[in-house]
Amino acid sequence: MTAFEGFRDFMAKCDELGELERINGVDPYLEIGAIYAINGQGPNPKLFLFDEIKGYQKGYRMATNITGSRNRGRLANGTPLDLSGQAYRDWLEKRLDEKKPIEPEYVTSGPVLENVMEGDNVDLSIFPSPTWHELDSGPYIACASACITMEPDGGYVNIGSYRSQYYDRNHIGLHSAHGHHGQIIRDHWFERGLDCPIVIHVNGDPALLAAAGAGEPWGVSELGTAGWMRGEPVKVIKGKTGLPIPAGAELVLEGHIMHPDREPLRLEGTFGEASGYYQRLEGHPAPPLKIDTVYYRTDPILAGSPPYKNVGGGGGGDGGDVALMREVRKAGFHDVRGIGHAGPFTVISVHQMYAGHGKRVADWFMSGINNRPPRMLVLVDDDIDPHDAREVFWAVGSRVDPKEDVHFYENNWASAVSPRFTPEQAHVPLEHAYTHSCMLIDALKPFAWKESFPPTNDVSPELRRRIIEQYGEYLHLEPERGGDGRTQAAGGAGMRGEM
Ligand SMILES: Cc1cc2nc3c(=O)[nH]c(=O)nc-3n(C[C@H](O)[C@H](O)[C@H](O)COP(=O)(O)O)c2cc1C
């Protein structure tokens, strides 16, 4: 594992890999956002480095889509680039077996101290803050941050990535969705009548961003996770609030989320959300942050990876299901063959051993495993590759009796940015109280008569393998369907998600 000293080191590696694109003279009002989104929606999402940004000092740069490619995601969390398929999955399993937090190392200096603004001298207006989407209510200074907070008793330190709207020279917003640990910690401070200290790492070591999005369980500090990803401790300096300041960062903001008794709520958003919609066009009231100290490198590079409408979803991700499968095993389930995603569906493939087996796994999963439960979950038998949308939809289309096999769960923890909330729900405080229903589509063959379920007329794996070997040149197969020698039989018994 090679730890990056900081963002510049990481960026140089991306440049070597041909993934860095430099663009000068772009307008932060909509142009940066549109360039980033249009490229990101395509097959080759680049790390863009914008300089000479209109209205800002040359050298004050903005990097977008930092971990937005397979290689960059892997670089950030210390995964080798050359592994794929089963070798990669085996590597990941071993790595997770050996996972051990590496706690941060406290130091007294670092590049982030090159420039410091304090108190009345704080002026956030000098840092590029794009307006990313056309209806956004204003510019955002941080959209790929690692926000560090600590429980009031000084114990648990959490990191999450939460966006920050720019308000004025020393005030910004924060959207930490309900149920995220950042919201809970904030409200523990508020319950005591106190402002919540916060450090926002706007950009720096990408391991911090990767750890911020890792969704560790309550009580597990992502600073240790970032150290584990790096293979060595994150170097930090003790900030004025007592929170750790990553020493190699490009820009860090330190201050407090203001208790509503001391500073009135301010409208946050509207903002283009990951759902592909704007949520609450009028914005929503949220506690603002007052920034007391700013630490930054000379000619800082900020970061932004806000959401854009992304309909590309599907596919098995880059090993995320390996971690989920470990949770399945930890929970004591057997014969779960894979977890994947197909369009809007989370898909679990089960080798059914008894009546109710699949539903039991689904009920457990719907409790939300380190995250919100999926809005739509599909159960499939083990002949279906849970990563392959075509197979999943075929199973749903052919094996489901809607009245029997579609089940609803009510009042589940839900993303606050679902566009499906009703106009009445629009008046509920965004950061506390959203729930909605979830759906399970049970596309398993009914257990009681699964042995007499009509057999599929698809070409059998054995015959398929032989025909591809013998007549492959006539078949014009896509690589994942056997064109590269991985026969489609691999989509059956040996499917990608199988463990
Ligand atoms: C680039 C990026 C931006 C994100 N923006 C937000 C956000 O604005 N608000 C939010 O609640 N979650 C956001 N998330 C998701 C959370 O950071 C993520 O779910 C995290 O695990 C929450 O951590 P926590 O439960 O420790 O607070 C973002 C994630 C990434 C990777």
CATH topology of the largest domain: Pnp Oxidase, Chain A
Task: Describe the main β-sheet briefly.
Answer: 9 strands, antiparallel
Shape: globular
Give the names of the bound compounds: flavin mononucleotide
β-strand percent reads: 15-25%
Topology, number of strands = 23
Subunit arrangement of the protein: single chain
Characterization of the model:
- With 499 residues, this protein is an alpha+beta fold.
- It folds into two domains: 7-304, Electron Transport, Fmn-binding Protein, Chain A (Pnp Oxidase, Chain A, Roll), CATH 2.30.110.10; 320-456, UbiD C-terminal domain-like (3-Layer(aba) Sandwich).
- 24% of the residues lie in helices and 23% in strands.
- Helix 6 packs across helix 7 (222-230).
- The longest helix is centred in the C-terminal third of the chain and has 15 residues, at 461-475.
- The radius of gyration is 24 Å and the shape is globular.
Quickly describe the structure.
With 499 residues, this protein is an alpha+beta fold.
